[in-house]
Specification:
The chain is an alpha+beta fold. The protein has three domains: 62 residues, 2-Layer Sandwich (Uridine Diphospho-n-acetylenolpyruvylglucosamine Reductase, domain 2), CATH 3.30.43; 113 residues, Uridine Diphospho-n-acetylenolpyruvylglucosamine Reductase, domain 3 (2-Layer Sandwich); 104 residues, UDP-N-acetylenolpyruvoylglucosamine reductase, C-terminal domain (Uridine Diphospho-n-acetylenolpyruvylglucosamine Reductase, domain 1). Helix content is 25%, strand content 24%.
């Protein structure tokens, strides 16, 4: 640690890298956030951390760092069919899912055990097991760091895409999300057709499947495949699943009949990034203190004592190799600092 960088960010990134910053602010309320704006903090272009689970920090941070810990869960509206649940940006995503499931409010049970905070979920348009956030998203409130005004964004404003939103594109680094409101179903629709959910539930011989059963099945599957950041540093899926021309996907399937693919429309097909990485021989690869997880090729891991730039170099080498072997470019899902 350099005396100029006295504050450790190790507790605030799930990779667990020993990186430092000069100035750290833990924000627990919108009032505190507004005070920081009025004090001129945002003129210094601070870095903002939510859960730190979708982040790779490669160097010490020169600018102030703000950790969003704004909490709160309450019903903001209700109809005969839906509950509008407003959650603070600092709430745990997974704990919020469990809260909804415990009330039998459906729509996010397939997203159980995704790490991170509520505030990061619309930035990333998180998704898993056939469900994306945009399907249940109603609106969010955010502070415009240039004007100091609180603004509301609906789904159209957010311009959701595959692991993408306006907050990763033209409005990147311009807002701090305060809260997210989800539109959840009072009469949930059970969705088990994606991945191994159906087979896990069938093995339990349930007479009737509930969203709690689906949530538990997803948790079981994820725990069997993905490392716990508390045990080994990681940020979950490091790469996005590439969407390629349908003609290229068809040719790839002829060469590899076992390849699973997911048509997006007449012209595009999604290919599992994990399959490409595994076929290229990277699954389980270790390079010093970092590597590719032995059970899930999408996950890059930190064994301890490594540097963020070591993970970045590994990720870039995987990118280059997959591009050379398959003519497919893998994009990063995590944010790189």
């Amino acid at each position: 640690m350099n005396a100029a960088f006295p504050i450790s960010l190790q507790p605030y990134n799930t990779f667990g890298f020993s990186v430092y910053c000069r100035e750290l602010h833990l924000v627990d309320s919108r009032e505190q956030l507004l005070e920081l704006f009025q004090a001129g903090l945002f003129q210094q272009n601070p870095k903002i951390i939510s859960g730190g689970s979708n982040l790779l920090i490669t160097e010490n941070i020169e600018v102030p760092v703000l950790v969003n810990r704004i909490k709160g869960i309450h019903i903001s509206g209700e109809t005969q069919e839906h509950i509008y649940l407003r959650l603070g940006a600092g709430e745990s995503w997974h704990e919020s899912v469990l809260y909804a499931v415990s009330h039998n409010w459906g729509g996010i049970e397939n997203l159980s055990l995704i790490p991170g905070s509520m505030g990061a979920s619309p930035i990333q348009n998180i998704g898993a097991y056939g469900v994306e956030l945009k399907e249940v998203f109603h609106e969010l409130e955010a502070l415009n760091i240039h004007t100091g005004n609180f603004e509301t964004f609906n789904a159209a404003d957010c311009k959701f895409g595959y692991r993408d939103s306006v907050f990763k594109q033209e409005k990147k680094n311009q807002y701090v999300i305060i809260s997210v409101t989800l539109k959840l179903d009072k009469n949930p629709v059970i969705r088990t057709q994606y991945g191994d959910i159906q087979s896990v539930l069938e093995a339990q011989n349930l007479s009737e499947i509930t969203i709690a059963d689906v949530s538990r099945a997803v948790i079981q599957i994820r725990q069997s495949k993905l490392p716990d950041p508390a045990e080994i540093g990681n940020s979950g899926s490091f790469f996005k699943n590439p969407v390629i021309p349908a003609s290229q996907a068809a040719a790839l399937q002829l060469a590899y009949p076992g390849l699973k693919s997911f048509p997006q429309n007449e012209n595009e097909t999604k290919i599992p990034a994990a399959w490409l990485i595994e076929q290229a021989g990277w699954k389980g690869h270790r390079r010093g203190d970092v590597g590719v997880h032995e059970k899930q090729a999408l996950v890059l891991v930190h064994y301890g004592g490594g540097k963020g730039r070591d993970v970045l170099q590994l990720a870039q080498d995987i990118q280059d190799d997959v591009r050379q072997k398959f003519n497919i470019t893998l994009d990063f899902e995590v944010n790189i600092w």
